[in-house]
Amino acid sequence: MATTSADEPPPLEAKTRRRGFVRPQGTDFAASARSRETGQEEEAAGNARSGRSRVHPGLPTFTDAYSPLAGSPDLSAANFGPGHFTESPIDEGPMDPDDYYDDFEEPDPNILPPTVSTYNKVEKPVARPPTIDELKSDLKGASSELTSPFDSPRPKTSQGWFEVQGMHILDVMTFAIRAAKMYYTAHEKPDRLDTIKPEKEVRADLLTVMDVLKHAATRDFAGGIRNDEVAYMEAWLNGVSTMLQRDEAIEDAEQQERASWSWLHGDWAEGDVSRELAFLRSMDPEADPLPAYTPARDAADLPTPLLREMQNGLRLVKLHNAAVHKSQRRFGAIPTFHTDTQKPYRAADNIRYWAKAAELRWEVALKVDALGIVYNNSPQVWIDFEDAIFKWCQKVREEISSELAQNTV
């Protein structure tokens, strides 16, 4: 029976696998490479030996016994014997096989395998946003519910009743504030609401009534709702009701105006400019009516009265802004333009503004010679100018008609 000494380490039970580091191995060079490198190494060793001997004569050199291709040098003379080596810092000795990471670990039994539902994407139903009519109905209902708590009799010595009444008013006011906020932020035409009441005033009134509710709830509605608090809440409710009434009045006026648009309905012949002229008259914000129309191709004297009215570009810019205001997509208006068009370059700029805005907002390219129109260079510029005006009318009219048709469906 074989025996082992106590100093010897126990043998490994199984061959362990090390990962992450590979010990460098020696390279066996070919004979041709070994002979080729020999001359260079001998020359380098000779140069080092001669220099070292001049500085320290008689001292043995390390290069005398070392050649990188010939083999390992004799290191015993330089005190590199077997007893002078230390253990490698990366040689950790025998390790437990469980300490090593295995790329192919066994699956966790607690994790269920994937099924069909794992990869089946379920679309969650999203509720549609409320319409403006529904928001208006909610706001009216919340406003009407707020009138009853203020009119109820108030006992003088019942704190419990004060708390019940205060919580009821707080709930109804919170619902009304939420309905007003939703109505104001989701309105299709916020600029119309801004004309009724500026947003800054709306926010100030809303913060005031919320502060009143906070103070009333902080004191636990002791003594009931005070008269000044009731006055603040009633003033806010009256302001909301006034805004709703004015908004409805403006909406009714717009519907009556759309009902008077003859170009919106009817059977019109192809290429009939009377429909475009009716569109121009309905969109014109000026008090003075447009001059009578005379075709530029048949006119003996150019410009015609209608084209002369459009020559400075100011009325075209106002027509464009009016059409943008009456459309559902209210963007692309011309913010700055020249009102004093005595100088020719200002009139030319207005025409350029109108043509560029038509390209950006209505996506229609217009061929106009702004300077030629201002200086009346040739009859052709007026013919092109008239064609551009009617082309713009047709494009804007078609877009507004399609928007109104979609809203009525």
From TrEMBL:
<protein>
    <submittedName>
        <fullName>Uncharacterized protein</fullName>
    </submittedName>
</protein>
<feature type="region of interest" description="Disordered">
    <location>
        <begin position="1"/>
        <end position="117"/>
    </location>
</feature>
<feature type="compositionally biased region" description="Acidic residues">
    <location>
        <begin position="89"/>
        <end position="108"/>
    </location>
</feature>
